[in-house]
């Protein structure tokens, strides 16, 4: 697990939209241990409702979910807010010749992480999206 400090003094809020309870709980614990406020949603419908209520800094969404899937959620979020950072996460899947994570990025996700995911990769992806200049500095100083 990463022990890197947050780029700002504020505790950013991450909305975790995930139908798999084990993955949702794992991501929640990981992010809370890293100093993020975490709000969870069980699918895209719940995620969109909570998104409008809490106005998170980052949304981490699964792609394949019941009720409302992640691609539709990403498109709905982008219609209302262009500034929020979105990370798509999926264990695979394709529509035609395009994999779902690539499609999610084309439709508005700022980053992606594939399942099974690496804890450090998820944390660094969130931090890089929130503070791009700080992420570059951290990488340079680590080299």
Q: Could you name the CATH topology?
A: Rossmann fold
The number of distinct helices, counting runs of at least 4 residues, comes to 6
Q: Order of strands in the sheet with the most strands?
A: 2-1-3-4-7
**CATH C-level:** Alpha Beta
**CA distance, first residue to last residue:** 19 Å
How many beta-strand runs? 7
CATH superfamily: Response regulator
Main sheet makeup: 5 strands, parallel
Q: Which structural category do the helix and sheet elements fall into?
A: alpha/beta
Give the low-confidence spans.
Answer: 1-9, 133-143
Structure description:
The protein is α/β, with parallel strands linked by helices. The chain has one domain: Rossmann fold, CATH 3.40.50.2300. Helices cover 45% and strands 20% of the residues. It contains six helices and seven strands, in the order βαβαβαβββαβαα. It has helices at residues 21-33, 44-54, 70-80, 100-106, 119-130, 132-142; strands at 13-17, 37-41, 58-62, 85-90, 94-95, 98-99, 111-114. The strands form two sheets. The protein has a five-stranded parallel sheet with strand order 2-1-3-4-7, sandwiched between helices. A two-stranded antiparallel ribbon has the order 5-6. Helix 2 packs parallel to helix 3 (70-80) and helix 5 crosses helix 6. The longest helix is centred in the N-terminal third of the chain and has 13 residues, at 21-33. The radius of gyration is 14 Å and the shape is globular. The protein starts with 12 loop residues before the first strand and ends with a helix.
């Amino acid at each position: 697990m990463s022990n890197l400090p947050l780029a700002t003094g504020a505790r950013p809020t991450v909305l975790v939209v995930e139908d798999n309870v084990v993955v949702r709980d794992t991501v929640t614990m990981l992010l809370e241990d890293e100093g993020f406020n975490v709000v969870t949603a069980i699918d895209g419908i719940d995620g969109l409702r909570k998104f409008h209520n809490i106005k998170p800094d980052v949304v981490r969404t699964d792609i394949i979910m019941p009720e409302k899937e992640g691609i539709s959620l990403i498109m709905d979020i982008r219609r209302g807010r262009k500034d929020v950072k979105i990370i798509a996460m999926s264990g695979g899947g394709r529509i035609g010749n395009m994999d779902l994570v690539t499609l999610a990025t084309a439709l508005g996700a700022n980053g992606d992480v594939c399942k099974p995911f690496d804890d450090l990769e998820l944390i660094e992806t969130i931090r890089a999206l929130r503070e791009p200049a700080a992420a570059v500095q951290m990488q340079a100083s680590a080299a």
